[in-house]
UniProtKB/TrEMBL annotation:
Keywords: Membrane, Transmembrane, Transmembrane helix. It is found in: Membrane. One of its GO terms (cellular component) is membrane. It is a multi-pass membrane protein. The lineage of its organism: Archaea, Methanobacteriati, Methanobacteriota, Stenosarchaea group, Halobacteria. It holds the Pfam family AI-2E_transport. InterPro entries: AI-2E-like. This is Permease. It comes from Haloarcula hispanica N601. Belongs to the autoinducer-2 exporter (AI-2E) (TC 2.A.86) family.
Length: 334
């Protein structure tokens, strides 16, 4: 009785401390979550380095350095090029007429485009100013992120041991199933989606450049980024360009960008890259991934891009475990 009461008291103290920690660390919770998920994906790399002669500290440091340098080499050049080529991107949209008249059922509906473009430009300008103002905070979060990733790669077994000690032995299989689902989902988000997005960017850059569009690089970057958005994807960029060509009276250009864009930009990277890497994932359906992505982003912001699909994936895995458990009970009764 005393042992059980002590367990309840410790569990209550743990919950209370966890709530206080959440409140105090609210500004960096997204950074902590992001670091945990990245370390989860990078652990095989650190383990591979360890098998090739590096000790735990050094393999964790090298893996963290590779991740940090890779992210910097991807984000900084793209951001710089988008900033330097922003005028080409705006000039592409400025080619649109200020107003378009749509005729439907004998009625004409004028649609103003210029105010929308001005609003979009104002939003992007405000975003750039806010980003510059937050640069010291972002730098501090980057340092925190690096330290957390290194610490988790250095002592990767600590969370597993803590979970096994807390959870009864009969539930260790549940922990392993959730671990496998989480690992596959994070791999799908980071590795598979990133590889597909990079392939989409390269193909889109070539296609838009060959078709003679100004700001082909910037448009390709947007297409690559939209590859992370499930269901919608880079086809939005292709269709937007096609609609712009139609509005400007360039019917031939609209047909060409629709055909080549949907085939080479919207379909080819998914068809070539995704099947080669899909065996490493857990196969979360695209519809559920889209639900998690949309709900996570709308609820939590940028970090919801990862948190939403992760929660949905764990929910699916728990539902599967419960279904298997019920089927096993029914077979025993019969």
């Amino acid at each position: 009785m005393v042992t059980r009461r002590r367990t309840y008291v410790l569990a209550g103290l743990l919950v209370l401390t966890g709530c206080l920690t959440t409140v105090l660390l609210a500004r960096v919770l997204s950074t902590i979550f992001f670091a945990i998920t990245v370390a989860y994906v990078l652990f095989p790399v650190s383990k591979w380095l360890g098998r090739h002669g590096l000790n735990k500290r050094l393999s964790a440091a090298v893996t963290t350095g590779i991740a940090f340098v890779s992210g910097t080499l991807i984000v900084v050049p793209l951001g710089a090029v988008l900033y330097l080529r922003r005028r080409d991107l705006f000039s592409f949209f400025q080619q649109l007429p200020p107003m378009v008249t749509i005729d439907v059922g004998g009625f004409s509906y004028p649609v103003e485009i210029a105010p929308t473009l001005l609003s979009a430009r104002r939003i992007l300008t405000d975003f750039a100013v806010d980003l510059a103002a937050e640069s010291p905070v972002l730098a501090l979060k980057a340092v925190l992120f690096t330290i957390l990733v290194y610490a988790m790669l250095w002592r990767p077994q600590a969370p597993k041991k803590a979970a096994y000690r807390t959870v009864p032995a009969s539930y260790h299989e549940v922990v392993n199933r959730l671990h496998q689902r989480l690992r596959g989902t994070l791999y799908a988000i980071y590795v598979l989606q990133a590889a597909t997005a990079f392939g989409t960017f390269v193909v889109a850059w070539v296609v838009f450049w060959l078709l003679g569009y100004q700001g082909a690089f910037a448009l390709a970057v947007v297409a690559g980024i939209l590859q992370f958005v499930p269901v919608i994807g880079p086809s939005v960029v292709v269709l937007t360009i096609a609609v712009a060509d139609l509005i400007n009276g360039n019917i031939t250009g609209a047909i060409l960008v629709t055909v080549f864009g949907l085939v080479f930009v919207g379909f080819l990277p998914d068809a070539v890259i995704r099947p080669k890497l899909a065996r490493y994932t857990t196969g979360l359906p695209a519809s559920l991934y889209f639900v998690g992505f949309t709900g996570g982003v709308l609820t939590l912001g940028v970090i919801g891009f990862i948190a939403g699909p992760v929660v949905i994936a764990l929910l699916v895995e728990l539902s599967s475990l419960l279904t298997n458990e019920r089927q096993g009970d029914q077979q025993q009764l019969s």
